[in-house]
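User: Fold this, then the next.

Assistant: Folding the first:
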Amino acid sequence: MDKKTAPVLEIKSLKDSGEFEGYGSTFGGEPDAYGDVIAVGAYAESLAVHQAKGTMPKLFWQHNSDEPIGKWLNAKEDDHGLLMNGKLNMDVQRGREAHALLKAGDIDGLSIGYRIKEYSVDTDTGVWTLEKLDLVEVSIVSVGANENAIVQSVKAAKAAHDLFEKLKAGDRLTEREFETWLKGLGLSNSQAERAVRLHLKGQGDPADTADDGVAFLRALAG
């Protein structure tokens, strides 16, 4: 499931050619705005896979896959976090705009898009420690522009992830849990509600229709 980190305000350098350096995320410390802590080494496996394939995470504007604005040249972990070296595409309007905004100091944030591979949860605090991540992209972001939307998206993704684990364990989901899980997959409120009506509130014996709903969920999970 794709997720995003809270922005990190650490652009370290910027050249007129469009080359720049900054941290995509930092390790340890206090939980970020979404209640996550990223463990040292969380990116090691993903970076090794990228290196073996000769690929790099994508460089997007505001996590929008329709707006690539350059490319990442290098990515590595150090004691502080995920250090990224990239180059903005100055032949692309959005790349030039991003460069101008960075140069003026109007924006200065980076944020990663990733999939969770391994994690642990502190049941007392609710803090997630992300131990192994599949790094998909690192975006230049304007901090605060979509913060509430991103927070809500991440909260929904976490809830859906927990429900998916419940489903894998063989437990039956309630109607509300089913709806939450579908929203976490990207369905709108109306689409999720309609799916609940179709697959958990069908005709016949309630237990049979509930079993049909679980089968439907398992098919979605692939």
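Now the next one, as you asked:
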Amino acid sequence: MKKDRKIAKAAAIQYNPDNHKAPVVIATGTGTQAERILELAKEHNIPLQEDTVLIEALMKLDIGEEVPVELYQVVAEVLVYIRKLNQQAKAY
């Protein structure tokens, strides 16, 4: 019997307040593309946050598109989480 395997999905956002009023989608992918996005994030010490609902929503956006207002709350929570991780890393 074949075991159902979950297909990897990933999305990456970037926030630069000098260039955009909201975070921008810079990468999305499934399968090997998603695995590569995750590998690159790990190689560059970019914190990862797993949120299936957010990934699904971000994957519907085009690369370069700003995150819509409806996703601000959840994206803000992710950014706060990442800021805390960065502060903890600097403390060591």
